[in-house]
DNA sequence: TTGAAAGCGTTACCAG
DNA sequence: CTGGTAACGCTTTCAA
């Protein structure tokens, strides 16, 4: 029973011999450090842990040996024994509104601060989720944040592995999953209310890709509120969240109606900008005198002087912060029940819509 | 010597007993599958490998058992024994031109296709590289793609761990590192040449953050070519790649000069757009009749009708593809020497600059 | 083709 | 506080 371990230590010893202190071929292990420091391997392990018990003298000897050898604890090996990879999966797809590059960066930073690494998955089509699920499970991620949809079956697969999931701006019908989202219905309601208050009566609605949940939420939010207010002159067309289809949609809208509506509600800022350009160039209209155009998101270009889009900004910072902590909490305490958080968007009164002054 | 292993198998057996086929508490291992299939653990391992030798019968038995148990090979354990994590680090920073959200997505997809996972690192400040290096080494990534700078010392640290590195749009003075970049000097040269050919004689140059290598390359590319052509009436101001500073820079430029230059060369499209807005709104100028303004990157907003920026587009697709394959090649064959690839940008003649017609 | 056994580099547990 | 030893879940010889 001891033989095995002796053999191991011997082989270690051999390895250490045939390498200099720096440029050796294989990376140093805790055994190498232990040997150099003249202590046990367990001691080395403890020195590199958080709540470890190690005397000051020990700590110093070990540290000295460690950085002489360029030793770094192997996170892979650690993950194997602790059953914690300290990695979370972040899933995005083409349909994910990447007009916020910050989302990814901020999420990563939030996790970094808490000593958690991010394994990034990008889906070509939304349908690729299958292999992604497979991969995250193989890599034993501790949790998942997804801005893409998973099928109920995939969700069950993940859940059966006891991996907590947080949806980002994707509300799932499943009641038992956690999510963080911007309250898009409320945002659309604000936009519609303001437009109607200012006298707009006929509307065009430009929706995004048919399979985007975000787009559907926004469209329904707007349509419901319009109905609520008794507005029936509403025409809907759909694009893909991109600038070009924004332009195309505007023309299609006008053609379909046979006239220009009082206002256009676009599913996002980029399409709103497309609409503005097409209204101006393609139809000689003045924005907002002839027509009001509003978007959603509050991305950078919406603030460019040429557009100054009236929109609702997503509180990205708070959303990412929230998503990260919800996930980490659930990793720490798996018994926690799912939770859905919705953040209100921030209304922005730009020059692209003719609204009443605040307080009027 | 045998005792240890017996104990192991016994404990496995026990575990299997107290769990149903699906909702058990712990995840199934190859031992569990082996037992259920009535074969050895090695056999299971082989079935889940690529070039393995396993009879058809065996394969079927094992597969059946495996998905009854919801078994998935543990990539962490595999990495430990094979010394290959199949993960690469991708490093970005705030200064990284994230106006291309695609870069990250495409890189990730390129790696995915080749069965390699991406570990994402985002730096708050460029200075944070220290802990990032530490983390990538701890996680034993097989390679690194970085769009942030590393100090020579950090570079040596990584190299001494025999981890190949590819720089993305960061040329390093070090001759021994691989890199993929857009040839920004050439791009700026094209812009300057076209402007001068069309009669522009006085210039403003708007550079980005002082510590951004990309910005410096672009500025130097433009200044050198201007000098080359004998143009001396050049004023330089600097911003931070953002829209607001683009606007501020334009005003600063005019104030500093006491007049309006014939053309402005901005370090990127976003600042060019800022300049255009400020020229129009702040100074009542007409673009391009009163002044020509050019940018760099070829981002989406540069194509919006209100700006139509004359610019040079980076061939993002080819660059990411190239970066990914360069890195994977070097992971496969560590003896390969470093290589630097520069891709020409794609000139775009937009309406923001008064240029001669092609062929004139 | 198959199975037994030895690691991979850690942490966890248990005596001293 | 310290050291010895058993996992963790896999791949990889080496015999059979």
Written account of the structure:
- The structure is a homodimer of 360-residue chains.
- In chain A, α6 links the parallel β1 and β2 (117-123).
- The radius of gyration of chain A is 28 Å and the shape is elongated.
- Chain A has three domains: 3-73, 434 Repressor (Amino-terminal Domain) (Orthogonal Bundle); 81-182 and 316-344, Rossmann fold, CATH 3.40.50; 184-314, 3-Layer(aba) Sandwich (Rossmann fold).
- Mean pLDDT of chain A is 89; it is low at 1-23.
- Chain A has helices at 2-17, 30-37, 41-47, 56-69, 75-82, 101-113, 129-138, 152-160, 184-197, 213-228, 243-257, 269-283, 316-332; strands at 87-93, 117-123, 143-146, 165-168, 178-182, 203-207, 234-238, 263-266, 292-294, 311-313, 340-343, 346-348.
- With 360 residues, chain A is α/β, with parallel strands linked by helices.
- In chain A, α2 (30-37) crosses α4 (56-69).
- The termini of chain A are far apart.
- In chain A, the strands form three sheets. In chain A, strands 2-1-3-4-5-11 form a six-stranded parallel beta sheet, with helices on both faces.
- Chain A is built from 13 helices and twelve strands.
- At the A-B interface, α5, β1, α6, β2 and α7 of A face α5, β1, α6, β2 and α7 of B.
- The first copy, chain A, binds a DNA duplex (16 and 16 nucleotides) through α1, α3 and α5.
């Amino acid at each position: 029973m001891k033989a095995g371990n002796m053999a191991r230590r011997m082989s270690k010893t051999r390895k250490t011999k045939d390498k200099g202190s720096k440029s050796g071929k294989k990376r140093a292990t805790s055994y190498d450090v232990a040997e150099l420091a003249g202590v046990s391997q367990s001691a080395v392990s403890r020195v590199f842990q958080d709540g470890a018990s190690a005397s000051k003298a020990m700590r110093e000897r070990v540290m000295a040996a460690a950085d002489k050898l360029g030793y770094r604890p192997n996170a892979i090996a650690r993950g194997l024994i602790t059953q914690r990879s300290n990695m979370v999966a972040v899933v995005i797809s083409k349909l994910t509104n990447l007009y916020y590059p910050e989302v990814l960066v901020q999420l990563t930073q939030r996790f970094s601060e808490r000593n958690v690494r991010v394994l990034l998955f990008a889906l070509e089509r939304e349908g690729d989720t299958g292999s992604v699920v497979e991969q995250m499970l193989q890599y034993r991620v501790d949790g998942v944040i997804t801005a893409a949809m998973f099928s109920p079956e995939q969700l069950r697969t993940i859940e059966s592995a006891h991996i907590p999931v947080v949806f980002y701006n994707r509300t799932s019908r499943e009641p038992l999953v956690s999510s963080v989202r911007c309250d898009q219905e409320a945002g659309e309601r604000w936009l519609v209310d303001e437009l109607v208050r200012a006298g707009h009566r006929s509307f065009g609605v430009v929706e995004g890709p048919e399979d985007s949940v975000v787009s559907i939420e926004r469209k329904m939010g707007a349509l419901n509120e319009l109905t609520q207010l008794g507005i029936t002159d509403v025409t809907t067309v759909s694009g893909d969240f991109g600038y070009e289809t924004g332009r195309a949609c505007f023309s299609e809208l006008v053609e379909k109606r046979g006239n220009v509506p009082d206002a256009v509600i676009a599913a996002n800022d980029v399409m709103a900008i497309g609409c503005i350009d097409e209204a101006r160039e393609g139809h000689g209209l003045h924005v907002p005198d002839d027509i009001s155009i509003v978007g959603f998101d509050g991305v950078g270009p919406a603030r460019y002087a040429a557009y100054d889009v009236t929109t609702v900004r997503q509180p990205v910072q708070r959303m990412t912060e929230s998503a990260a902590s919800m996930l980490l909490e659930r990793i720490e305490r798996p018994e926690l029940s799912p939770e859905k958080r919705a953040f209100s968007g921030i209304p922005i009164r730009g020059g692209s819509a003719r609204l009443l002054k605040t307080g009027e």
